[in-house]
Structures are given as structure tokens and as C-alpha cells.
């Protein structure tokens, strides 16, 4: 942990602000996965409609992330982070008041805008605050906050659905989603803009690139490959996790408490996967790290959903499932930070990561549609395999960026 001890006070505050923002973002997003079984029973919606609710959030988050990235290049990384946290917390809370599929579809779409924007603002903020030698570890460690948020959502869901009847519990879950808004007070008083961004804003505006230059001749190949990489990682993750509680309960016939136990193993695996990936990204390079995690994710996802195994074996396999499927994201922030110049870093990261999220968001809907003709586990496995094959192809084509110094450009 020498890299952490070497950070200044402001860098540490930035680290914890981004860590908290991403963890609370995960908490709000993962609430929906625990509400799905209740909505299936109470509103009599189909798996395809449940997938569409998840997809709408993710598709609009892709737009929100791109817009937020462009705004971060103009008004600042820290300022945008506060706005996006307040946005997604409010609309998560509002979801608890909906009374129909259509209403929830609309509100979840607005929630997705802030969800995508939070990652774009926080990732570039963190990437610019840490020096090259430790960027992979620090940004990857922030990414590990997702497991903490996911774990918190699982614990809250287990308690809430045990204490309250189903028709009240799902609303209570969304109401708790207002909690992340409290983080903006910490960011407002403790987190400064990165020095790199401050230096970039000094001087004439004519020297600053336009946001759409990420589609210009010099940056277009990078933008395309970055977007493809993010598409595979996001598609695989959401194909697996969106319907995971439903898969455990409907095809494995586990109770609420039993499902919580299996998810606990997966979440612990996820957290360790983030940490190991964060260190590997600096140790072996960005490309090799992606290849290791993509292959591991593909093999474990197929085994978990396709092979006839005992519940005990499934419990054990949950650890590597979480380890690989989640850990792959630790390398995403560092590589996207290093691929784009400072003047359009927010726009580049925001577009690539969230374009991937938007296209990957289609996977839950496709899983839900395919599950009408095949087993849900089979549908999950098919789309997970396709997604991680995409990651492998993109990783092989991208340049290695480990150790790249960031400059004002």
C-alpha cells in the first residue's frame, strides 16, 4: 500500500470521494436486481419486460455518461461528480412511488442518466489525480467499491424482504436509494479539481479541443476500440448479474436467505477480483490483464449456468464467477484515461465506457427474450460467452498504455 501512503491529503480525499460515489452508485443500481422477483409476482410482468427495465436504465446511462464526460471537460470533474450523485439518488428514490411498468420504465431511465454520468466524472477525476506508476492500482481500487455497494444492497434486500411483506419491501428498497445524496456535502468541501485539469483550462479557449474530436481521424480508431472493449465487459456483466437472483430462485429454487448466501460468495469474489485486477494491471500490463479476466469470465459463466452441478459446487463456483466478471472493470478506468488527451479525456472516457454500457444493456433484454424458449441459465451463458469473446478481440487490438504519463494536451 505504498502508493496510498505516498498520496497527498487532497489525493486521498479524492480517492475516498470517488470510492464512495462508485460504491453508492452500485448500491442504487443493484437494488433493482433484488426487486425483480417481487415485480414479476406483483405486476405479472415477463422476464423480457424485467430485462427491458434494466436495459432502459443502462441505455440512457450510456447517453448520460457521454454528456457528463463532455461537461466534465468544461465545468470540472469534481463539480460534475456532485451533480450526477444527486441526480441518480433522487430518481432511485422516486422509483419507489411508481405504480406500473410504464412509470418505472420512465423513472429508471432518468436514474440511468445519473448512473452513467457518475462513472464518467469520477473515473477521469481519479485517473488524473494519480501518477502513472500507481494509476492502475488506485483507479482499480476505486472500482472495487462496486462490490461494497452490491454487498450493501444484498444485505439491505435480505433484511427488508424478511421484515416487510413483498408489496411494501420493494418500495422500501428504492426509498433507501436517497442515501448517496449525502456524499455531495463531502465532495463540495473536501475535493479539489485535479491540477492537470486546472492547467488545461488556463489559456485561450481556441487551444482546447472540441468534444467531437474523439471521432476525428487521429482519435477515431482509439475511440472505436475503447467502445468495443467496454461493450464486451459490460454486456457480459449485465447478462449475468441482472437475472442472477431470479436464476437462483426460479431454476435453483433457493429461498431469499439461500439466495443471499450464494450472492455473498459472488460479491466477496467480486471484491477480491477488483483488487487483484488493480495490481495486475500495473504489474503485467493493461492488455494481458484484460485477456486473463475475459477468458476466466467466459469459462466460469458457462460452467455456472450450463453444467449440471450440485448446489454445493455452485456455491464454490460463485467465487470465481464474481472474481472474473467484476474484476475485469478495474483495468477499464486506467486504460481509457491513458488513451485520450486531457482536453477530451472526459468525453473520450465517457463515450467509450458508456457506449459499451448502452450496447451491453441490450443483453439483459435478449437474455429475457431467449429465456422464453430455453432455460434462463442457458440464455445467460450464451450471451456471456459472446460478450467476453468481444473483450478478447478488442484487448488484442488496443495498444499497451501501462506507465503512460499524462500531460496537458
| CATH level-two architecture | Up-down Bundle
The number of helical elements comes to: 19
> Helix proportion of residues, in percent?
over 70%
SSE order, one letter for each helix or strand:
HHHHHHHHHHHHHHHHHHH
Sheet of most strands: none
Give the CATH topology: Growth Hormone, Chain: A
- What top-tier CATH class fits best? Mainly Alpha
Low-confidence stretches: none
Share of residues in strands: under 5%
- Measure the end-to-end span: 31 Å
The radius of gyration is 20 Å
Number of strand elements = 0
Strands, helices and their partners?
Blueprint: H1 2-5, H2 9-42, H3 47-75, H4 77-95, H5 101-129, H6 135-143, H7 145-163, H8 166-176, H9 183-190, H10 195-201, H11 220-241, H12 244-250, H13 256-283, H14 286-306, H15 311-327, H16 332-339, H17 345-360, H18 362-370, H19 376-397
Amino acid at each position: 500500500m505504498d502508493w496510498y501512503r505516498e498520496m497527498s491529503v487532497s489525493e486521498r480525499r479524492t480517492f475516498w470521494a470517488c470510492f464512495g460515489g462508485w460504491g453508492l452508485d452500485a448500491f442504487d443500481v443493484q437494488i433493482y436486481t433484488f426487486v425483480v422477483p417481487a415485480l414479476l409476482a406483483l405486476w405479472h410482468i415477463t422476464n423480457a419486460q424485467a430485462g427491458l427495465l434494466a436495459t432502459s436504465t443502462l441505455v440512457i446511462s450510456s447517453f448520460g455518461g457521454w454528456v457528463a464526460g463532455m461537461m466534465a471537460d468544461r465545468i470540472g470533474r469534481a463539480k460534475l461528480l456532485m451533480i450526477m450523485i444527486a441526480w441518480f439518488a433522487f430518481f432511485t428514490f422516486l422509483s419507489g412511488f411508481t405504480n406500473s411498468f410504464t412509470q418505472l420504465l420512465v423513472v429508471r431511465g432518468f436514474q440511468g442518466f445519473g448512473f452513467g454520468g457518475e462513472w464518467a466524472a469520477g473515473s477521469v477525476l481519479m485517473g488524473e489525480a494519480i501518477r502513472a506508476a500507481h494509476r492502475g492500482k488506485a483507479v482499480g481500487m476505486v472500482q472495487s467499491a462496486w462490490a461494497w455497494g452490491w454487498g450493501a444492497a444484498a444485505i439491505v434486500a435480505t433484511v427488508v424482504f424478511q421484515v416487510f411483506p413483498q408489496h411494501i419491501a420493494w418500495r422500501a428498497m428504492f426509498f433507501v436509494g436517497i442515501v448517496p445524496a449525502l456524499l455531495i456535502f463531502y465532495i463540495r468541501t473536501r475535493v479539489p479539481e485535479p491540477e492537470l485539469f486546472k492547467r488545461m483550462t488556463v489559456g485561450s479557449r481556441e487551444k482546447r479541443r472540441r468534444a467531437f474530436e474523439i471521432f476525428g481521424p487521429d482519435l477515431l480508431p482509439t475511440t472505436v476500440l475503447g467502445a468495443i472493449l467496454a461493450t464486451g465487459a459490460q454486456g457480459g456483466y449485465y447478462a449475468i448479474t441482472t437475472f442472477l437472483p431470479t436464476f437462483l430462485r426460479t431454476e435453483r429454487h433457493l429461498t431469499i436467505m439461500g439466495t443471499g448466501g450464494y450472492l455473498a460468495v459472488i460479491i466477496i469474489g467480486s471484491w477480491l477480483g477488483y483488487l487483484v485486477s488493480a495490481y495486475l494491471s500495473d504489474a503485467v500490463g493493461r492488455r494481458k490483464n484484460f485477456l486473463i479476466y475475459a477468458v476466466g469470465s467466459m469459462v466460469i459463466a458457462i460452467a455456472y449456468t450450463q453444467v449440471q452441478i450440485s448446489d454445493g459446487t455452485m456455491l464454490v463456483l460463485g467465487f470465481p464467477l464474481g472474481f472474473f466478471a467484476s474484476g475485469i472493470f478495474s483495468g477499464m478506468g486506467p486504460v481509457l484515461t491513458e488513451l485520450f488527451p486531457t482536453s477530451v479525456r472526459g468525453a473520450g472516457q465517457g463515450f467509450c465506457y458508456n457506449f459499451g454500457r448502452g450496447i451491453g444493456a441490450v443483453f439483459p433484454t435478449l437474455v429475457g427474450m431467449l429465456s422464453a424458449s430455453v432455460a434462463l441459465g442457458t440464455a445467460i451463458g450464451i450471451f456471456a460467452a459472446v460478450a467476453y469473446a468481444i473483450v478478447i478481440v478488442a484487448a488484442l487490438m488496443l495498444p499497451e498504455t501501462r506507465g503512460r504519463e499524462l500531460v496537458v494536451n
